[in-house]
C-alpha cells in the first residue's frame, strides 16, 4: 500500500510503499477514504523540538480519517466489511484507574495513532476495534474526516454551559472556528473570536463568530466597550496556544468566569494568578475527546444542523501531499483534506 511516512529523523515526509498491516484478533483493518491534516502532522513534517522528542521513525503519520472496514479480527463483534467508520486516535491501556472507571480520555498510558504508532495517511490502517467508531453515512465524508479535531472543539466548547453566555474564543484556527460554530449552535449570545491572521478571522465569521478581533491591533477591553459589554466574558475557550492570548483572556473575563484551555503553549506561559484568585476564575485543561461521549455529542449536533463545512477549504490527492503541507504551513487554509482513492 502507499503511505506518507517519516522515514528518517529530520524535516520532511516521504511517500512510501508499505505492507498492508495484518489485523490482530481484536483489531479492525480500515480502508482509508479521506484524511485531513492536523497541526500535529505539520509539527512532525517540520521536525520541531516536540517531534524530535516524540516521533520514532520510520513511522506512517496521520490520525484524522474516515474509511470503511476491510477485515476484522476473530474476536471482533459489531463491525463488518463495508461499514463506514471513523476512529479515535488515542489508544488507551484499559487497565489504569481512569480507564477502569470509564474515563478513558484520562488514561495515563495513551498511545497516539500516527504519533506513537503507524497512522492513517495510508491506504489501510489497523487499530483496535475498540477505537473504531460507526458513523452516520448521511454526514458528508469531508465532515467525517474532520471528526477528530471537531471532537477537540466539542470537548472544549461543552465543558461549560454556553446558553445565553458571552463567549471569547482566542485562536481562529480550524478548532477555534469549529468551536465558534458549536457555541452558536448551542445558544451562546456573543461569540467573539480573536486571531492575528485576517484570513482566519474571515473564516471565523463564516463559521458563526458574532464579532472578530485582530489581536495584533485591537484590545479586548475596547471591543467589550464597543459591544456594550460591562462585566466581561462568561466563558473563554483558549484555542491559540499563544501565551499573550491567554493573558488577554484572563484579563477580560467576568468575575466567576470559566476558561477551558485546549491550546498547547510553547513553554511555561506566565499567568497573573491574582486575577484568577480575586476574580474567582475557573481554568480547566482539556485534552483529546471523551470516549465516546464527545463522538455522540458531535454527531448529534451535526445531525441537528451544526454546519462545519466552511472550515474545509482545500482538497488534494495524497500524491500531492507536499503542496498540501506547504499550504497548511502558509496559514492560508482551514482544514485540508487528502483523498486516498487509488
Ligand atoms: P492552529 O495553529 O491552526 O490555530 C491557532 C490560531 O491561533 C492561528 O490561527 C494563529 O494565528 C492564532 N493566534 C496566534 N497568536 C494569537 C493571539 N495572540 N491571539 C489570538 N490568536 C492567535 O491550531 P488548531 O489546529 O486550530 O488547534 C488549536 C490549538 O489547540 C493548538 O494550540 C493545538 O496545538 C491545540 N490542540 C490541543 C489538543 C488537545 O488535546 N489539548 C488537540 C488538538 C489541538
Ligand atoms: Zn489507561
TrEMBL record:
A single cellular component GO annotation: cytoplasm
Subcellular location: Cytoplasm
Chain ranges of the Enoyl reductase (ER) domain: 10-338
Catalytic center residues: 40, 43
Cofactor needs: Zn(2+)
UniProt-listed InterPro entries: ADH-like_C, ADH-like_N, ADH_Zn_CS, ER, GroES-like_sf, L-Threonine_3-DHase, NAD(P)-bd_dom_sf, Zn_alcohol_dh
Binding site for NAD(+): 175, 195, 200, 262-264, 286-287
Residues annotated as site: Important for catalytic activity for the proton relay mechanism but does not participate directly in the coordination of zinc atom: 148
Annotated binding of Zn(2+) 2, by residue: 93, 96, 99, 107
GO terms of biological process kind: L-threonine catabolic process to glycine
Co-factor: note: Binds 2 Zn(2+) ions per subunit.
Binding site for Zn(2+) 1: 38, 63-64
Location, primary (coarse class): cytoplasm
Catalytic activity entry: L-threonine + NAD(+) = (2S)-2-amino-3-oxobutanoate + NADH + H(+)
Keywords in alphabetical order: Cytoplasm, Metal-binding, NAD, Oxidoreductase, Zinc
Annotated pathway: Amino-acid degradation; L-threonine degradation via oxydo-reductase pathway; glycine from L-threonine: step 1/2
E.C. no: 1.1.1.103
Molecular function terms, GO-annotated: L-threonine 3-dehydrogenase activity; zinc ion binding
Quaternary structure (record): Homotetramer.
Record function comment: Catalyzes the NAD(+)-dependent oxidation of L-threonine to 2-amino-3-ketobutyrate.
Assigned protein family: Belongs to the zinc-containing alcohol dehydrogenase family.
Name of the protein this chain belongs to: L-threonine 3-dehydrogenase
Species assigned in the record: Cephaloticoccus capnophilus
Organism ancestry: Bacteria, Pseudomonadati, Verrucomicrobiota, Opitutia, Opitutales
Amino acid at each position: 500500500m502507499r503511505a506518507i511516512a517519516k522515514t528518517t529523523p529530520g524535516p520532511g515526509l516521504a511517500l512510501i510503499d508499505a505492507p498492508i498491516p495484518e489485523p490482530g484478533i481484536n483489531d479492525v483493518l480500515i480502508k482509508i477514504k479521506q484524511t485531513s491534516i492536523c497541526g500535529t502532522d505539520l509539527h512532525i513534517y517540520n521536525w520541531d523540538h516536540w517531534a524530535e522528542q516524540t516521533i520514532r521513525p520510520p513511522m506512517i503519520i496521520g490520525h484524522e480519517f474516515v474509511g470503511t472496514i476491510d477485515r476484522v479480527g476473530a474476536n471482533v463483534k459489531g463491525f463488518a466489511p463495508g461499514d463506514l467508520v471513523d476512529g479515535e486516535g488515542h489508544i488507551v491501556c484499559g487497565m489504569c484507574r481512569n480507564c477502569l472507571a470509564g474515563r478513558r480520555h484520562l488514561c495515563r498510558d495513551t498511545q497516539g495513532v500516527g504519533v506513537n504508532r503507524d497512522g492513517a495517511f495510508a491506504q489501510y490502517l489497523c487499530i483496535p476495534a475498540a477505537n473504531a467508531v460507526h458513523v452516520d453515512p448521511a454526514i458528508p465524508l469531508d465532515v467525517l474526516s474532520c471528526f477528530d479535531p471537531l471532537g477537540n472543539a466539542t470537548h472544549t466548547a461543552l465543558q461549560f454551559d454556553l446558553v445565553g453566555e458571552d463567549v471569547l474564543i482566542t485562536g481562529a484556527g480550524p478548532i477555534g472556528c469549529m468551536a465558534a460554530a458549536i457555541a452558536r449552535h448551542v445558544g451562546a449570545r456573543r461569540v467573539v473570536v480573536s486571531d492575528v491572521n485576517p484570513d482566519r478571522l474571515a473564516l471565523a465569521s463564516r463559521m458563526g463568530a458574532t464579532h472578530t478581533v485582530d489581536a495584533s491591533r485591537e484590545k479586548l477591553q475596547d471591543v467589550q466597550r464597543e459591544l456594550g459589554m460591562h462585566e466581561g466574558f462568561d466563558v473563554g475557550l483558549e484555542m491559540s496556544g499563544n501565551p499573550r492570548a491567554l493573558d488577554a483572556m484572563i484579563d477580560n473575563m467576568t468575575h466567576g468566569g470559566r476558561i477551558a484551555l485546549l491550546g498547547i503553549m510553547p513553554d511555561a506561559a506566565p499567568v497573573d494568578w491574582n486575577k484568577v484568585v480575586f476574580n474567582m476564575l475557573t481554568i480547566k485543561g482539556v485534552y483529546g475527546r471523551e470516549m465516546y461521549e464527545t463522538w455522540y455529542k458531535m454527531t448529534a449536533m451535526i445531525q441537528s444542523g451544526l454546519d462545519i463545512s466552511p472550515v474545509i477549504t482545500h482538497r488534494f490527492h495524497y500524491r500531492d501531499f507536499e503542496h498540501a503541507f506547504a499550504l497548511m504551513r502558509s496559514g492560508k487554509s482551514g482544514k485540508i483534506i487528502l483523498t486516498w482513492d487509488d
